[in-house]
């Protein structure tokens, strides 16, 4: 579950079925990682972000599983990522989309993260969002 990382903090990851119920497991993974790192003040936003990223992967992914990753790529940053086997790049909706409830996940991710993006791989992609925090000295 945890693997070494350049910042001396382990990355947490879990492969999950590509189904809506996996969002709850992803939230638990995020809560566990952030609590272990003493970043409880980031948990609420991080849980919304990972829920939206998982929802997008469930809707647009191609294979039966997705992978959720929680890491600290550099000091002061937490990265929440979801990997799926689709190479389709997500687009943030900028229209109001009428009365539709769906299609606004990346608007939330954009509002709650310092930055977000997509890393393309030969076999799929990772959509990620990063939260910035003040390191304790």
Share of helical residues = 25-40%
Structural class: alpha+beta
Strand order of the largest sheet: 1-2-3-4-6-5
Q: Estimate the mean pLDDT confidence.
A: 90
What does the main sheet amount to? 6 strands, antiparallel
What's the CATH H-level superfamily name? Histidine kinase-like ATPase, C-terminal domain
The CATH architecture:
2-Layer Sandwich
Looking at CATH, which topology would you report?
Heat Shock Protein 90
How much β-strand is present in the residues?
25-35%
Number of helices: 3
CATH class: Alpha Beta
Number of domains: 1
Contiguous uncertain segments of 5+ residues: none
For this structure, the quaternary state is single chain
Q: Taking Cα atoms only, what radius of gyration do you get, to the nearest Å?
A: 14 Å
Assign an overall shape: globular
- Intertermini distance: 28 Å
Folded structure, characterized:
This protein has helices spanning 22-36, 43-60, 105-112, and strands at residues 2-3, 11-17, 65-71, 77-84, 115-121, 124-132. It is of the alpha+beta class and 137 residues long. The chain has one domain (2-132): 2-Layer Sandwich (Heat Shock Protein 90). Strand 3 and strand 4 form a beta hairpin. Helix 1 runs antiparallel to helix 2 and helix 2 (43-60) packs antiparallel against helix 3 (105-112). The protein is globular, with a radius of gyration of 14 Å.
Sum this structure up briefly.
This protein has three helices and six strands; from the N terminus they run ββααββαββ.
